[in-house]
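hey
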């Protein structure tokens, strides 16, 4: 099986002076290891990771075996104990590939900055089928939650943070996240309580003209936000059949997530070389020239036709008759009142302001309409992160 994409492999090394390690800690392979009390060094067979539900059977895994687990994210309950403590703790809604980071925050357990086969004894259960989610997005989303959430300071919840609370008596977790370009939240709830949460949100949101929406609306919002979609704006390396279908993080706008200084991992040297040289392709925005679009329609006696939904059909992008990339997602933006698209272009054509042509169908005939390269995201109001 392929290695997991992130989390367990290649954590950053930190040089540690053993003389400066605080009481109650010790050092393994230059990593400070937190301890609940005086604990001797142990052999690797006394450190195991036990997984229930998330894999085929309950068993113990070494780190080498763990790195071979599939890359899917599991929503889990995690129970952590050590052989030196009968007490334990439980985390809910933690993904498998960030499990180690969660455990590291608990100083009373025998773990942190582990290396090789040194791990804490954990029990993991996949509870994905018992969890539901509702996304509340838009400029009034905070005000709506403030009216109906109890025991949670929604007002001061920071971007990409999560807090527990209750909504009409139902225990929920609220994260300030979403697949749109605006202020928004996602509410995580036991699946059998989802209807009650929905009703509470609709009641609290009625004065704010709350409106149920689905994937078609979300597709428009994510393009406005410059958010890519798997198998539409890029292809997973697992599905790529030819080199041109393979994308690096730098080519799809995710270079900020790459750590080139962590301990060795597969592909690190290639990523370092690409970071130094620059990617061959880049993810950019395209803004359609409305006058040119109007001209193309007028030539066949039609008014401009606005698409009712976003398009996920890739079309070529040209410069002077030569293809320089492709537009992968396009839509009419009701927020910006513009026709926009996400595109993958050769880097020499990805400079904002560059004038290009994009294939566009008018009256069942393929034409070319003028476009201008724009930096992403198209829509990024301060309230999204404020």
């Amino acid at each position: 099986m392929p290695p997991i994409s992130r989390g367990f492999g290649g954590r950053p090394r930190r040089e540690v002076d053993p003389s400066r390690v605080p009481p109650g800690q010790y050092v393994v392979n230059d990593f400070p290891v937190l301890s609940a009390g005086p604990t001797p060094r142990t052999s690797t067979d006394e450190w195991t990771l036990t997984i229930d539900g998330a894999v085929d059977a309950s068993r113990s895994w070494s780190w080498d075996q763990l790195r071979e687990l599939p890359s899917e994210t599991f929503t889990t309950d995690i129970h952590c104990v050590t052989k030196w403590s009968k007490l334990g703790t439980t985390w809910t809604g933690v993904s498998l590939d960030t499990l180690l980071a969660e455990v590291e925050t608990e100083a009373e357990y025998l773990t942190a900055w582990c290396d090789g086969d040194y791990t804490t004894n954990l029990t993991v259960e996949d509870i994905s089928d018992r969890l539901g989610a509702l996304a509340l997005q838009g400029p009034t989303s905070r005000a709506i939650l403030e009216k109906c959430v109890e025991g949670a300071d929604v007002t001061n919840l920071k971007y990409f943070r999560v807090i527990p609370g209750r909504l009409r008596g139902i225990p929920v977790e609220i994260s300030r996240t979403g697949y749109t370009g605006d202020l928004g939240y996602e509410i995580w709830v036991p699946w059998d309580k989802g209807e009650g949460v929905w009703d509470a949100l609709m009641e609290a949101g009625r004065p704010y003209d709350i409106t149920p929406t689905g994937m078609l609306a979300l597709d428009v919002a994510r393009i406005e936000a410059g958010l890519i979609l798997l198998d539409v704006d890029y292809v997973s390396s697992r599905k790529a059949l030819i080199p041109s279908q393979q994308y690096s993080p730098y080519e799809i706008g995710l270079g900020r997530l790459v750590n080139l200084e962590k301990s060795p991992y597969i592909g690190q040297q290639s990523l370092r070389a690409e970071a130094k040289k620059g990617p061959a392709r880049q993810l950019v925005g395209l803004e359609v020239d409305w006058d040119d679009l109007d001209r193309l329609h007028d030539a066949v006696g039609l008014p401009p036709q606005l698409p009712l939904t976003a398009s996920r059909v890739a079309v070529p992008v040209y410069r002077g008759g030569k293809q320089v990339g492709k537009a992968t997602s396009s839509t009419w933006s009701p927020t910006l009142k513009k026709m926009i698209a996400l595109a993958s272009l050769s880097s020499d054509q990805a400079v904002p302001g560059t004038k290009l042509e994009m294939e566009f169908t008018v009256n069942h005939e393929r034409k070319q309409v003028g476009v201008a390269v724009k930096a992403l995201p198209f829509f990024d109001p301060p309230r999204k992160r404020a």
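The domain at 243-374 is CATH 2.40.30.110 (Elongation Factor Tu (Ef-tu); domain 3). The longest strand covers residues 322-333.
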